[in-house]
Amino acid sequence: MKTRAAVAVAAGKPLEIMEVDLEGPKAGEVLIEVKATGICHTDEFTLSGADPEGIFPAILGHEGAGVVVDVGPGVTTLKKGDHVIPLYTPECRQCPSCLSRKTNLCTAIRATQGQGLMPDGTSRFSIGKDKIFHYMGCSTFSNFTVLPEIAVAKVDPEAPFDKICYIGCGVTTGVGAVLNTAKVTPGATAIVFGLGGIGLNVIQGLRLAGADMIIGVDINDDKKEWGERFGMTHFVNPKEVDGDIVPYLVNMTKRGADQIGGADYTFDCTGNTKVMRQALESAHRGWGESIVIGVAGAGQEISTRPFQLVTGRVWKGTAFGGARGRTDVPKIVDWYMAGKIEIDPMITHTLTLDEINKGFDLMHAGKSIRSVVVY
Length: 375
Ligand code: NAD
Ligand code: 022
Ligand code: ZN
What we know:
Layout: E1 2-7, E2 16-22, E3 29-38, H1 41-48, E4 64-71, E5 83-86, H2 96-100, H3 110-114, E6 125-127, E7 130-132, E8 144-148, E9 152-154, H4 161-164, H5 170-182, E10 189-193, H6 199-209, E11 213-217, H7 223-229, E12 234-236, H8 245-252, E13 265-268, H9 273-281, E14 289-292, H10 307-310, E15 314-317, H11 325-337, E16 347-351, H12 356-364, E17 370-374
Parallel strand pairs: 10-11, 10-13, 11-12, 13-14, 14-15, 16-17
Antiparallel strand pairs: 1-2, 2-6, 3-4, 3-8, 3-17, 4-5, 5-9, 6-7
Helix pairs in contact: 5-6
C-alpha cells in the first residue's frame, strides 16, 4: 500500500513529506493507522546527525497512538479495530530480561530494532527500489506503520489519540521513573532538574506518589509556573543562586535532629552530565537515590567522587520509566481517563503532518512542552 510519511532523508535536513510504499504485516506483525504522534528529543537527536547510530533514510517518530487495521499470521493478542500505542521498548514476556522481573529492557527484537529493521531483518518501508529504515521499532511519522505484536499496547478505545500518544514516551518515562524506578514513598522529598516534557511528568508522578517537598530546578524562569501547575512546591533557578547549587539545595532540604540535608530522590531530566552530578550530590547522605533520565550526547561521561556513593547515595538510570509496555501503558491510559494524571495542558502545539518541521523548530526554541502531529 501507499502511505504519507515525513521522511528523514539525510542528517541535518528537514523532514520531507512524501508518499512511500508500505508492505503489509508478516507473521507476528500488525499494521497500524497512526492517528497522532508526539515529537520528542530523540527524533531531533537522530535527525540532527548527532546520534552516531542514526541511519538514513528513515521514518522517525516513536510517540504515537492509533488503530490496528490488519494483522499478520499468528497474531493472537490484537485484532482489527483495537486502539493501540506503539512501544519502542517491547514486552515479549519470554526473553531472559522479561522473565527476570528485574528490568523492562526486553531483548527479543533488540538487534534488528537498532538496525532500523523488522525482526526478520527486512524493512516494510520503501520508495520504489529504495529501502527506508524503521526507527526505534515505531516510525510514527508515517500515517501507517507496521510493528511486531510484542511492541504494541492495547488501550481504552475511548481515550483521545491526540493526548494519549504522549504516553508512548514522555508521560510514561516521567511518571514511570518515579513509580517503577525510584519507587517513591509518601512523605518523600524530591528534586527534579529540568522542567520540560519529561520533568513535568516526573513532578506529576511525585504528586501521585504523595511526595511532600517537590523542588524544581530550571535555568528558565518560565518553568516555575509550569512546575507549580503539576505539583511542584519550590522552584530554584541556578542562575540566581550565588555559587554552587548543590549546597543551596542541601540546605533547603535540611530536616531531622541531625539537620543533614539532601533529597530522598533526585531526577535528572536535562541530559546534561554536569547536572547529573549535581543531582547525585544533592541526594541525602546514607539513602538518597538519584535517577538519570536525560540522554546525554554521544561519548559523554559522568563523574563524581566515589565518596558520594560510599556514603550511601545511589546512582540509577531508567529507560522508558522502567515500564513494561504492554502491561503498564494501558494502566497509564486508564489513569489519564480517570483524571489521576493530566496530559492536555502539556500539549502546547498541535500540527498537521505538513507542518511537522515547525514542531522541531518549536523544540529548538524552547517554546513547546510537547508538539503533537494529528493525521
Ligand atoms: P526539554 O528540552 O523539554 O526539557 C529540558 C529542560 O531542562 C528545559 O526546561 C531546560 O530549560 C532545562 N535545563 C537545561 N539545562 C539546565 C540546567 N543546567 N539546569 C537545570 N535545568 C536545565 O526536554 P525533555 O523532553 O523534558 O527531555 C529531557 C531529557 O530526557 C532528554 O535528554 C531526553 O532525551 C530524555 N529522555 C529520556 C528517556 C528515557 O527513557 N531515559 C525518555 C524520554 C526522554
Ligand atoms: C526516548 N528516549 C529518549 C527520548 N525519547 C530514549 C532513548 C534511548 C533509550 C530510552 C529512551 C534507551 C535506554 C537504553 C536503551 N535505549 C537500550 C535498550 C537495550 O539495549 O535494550 C534504547 C532504546 C531503543 C533504541 C535505542 C536505545 C532504538 O530502538 N534505536 C530503548
Ligand atoms: Zn521520546
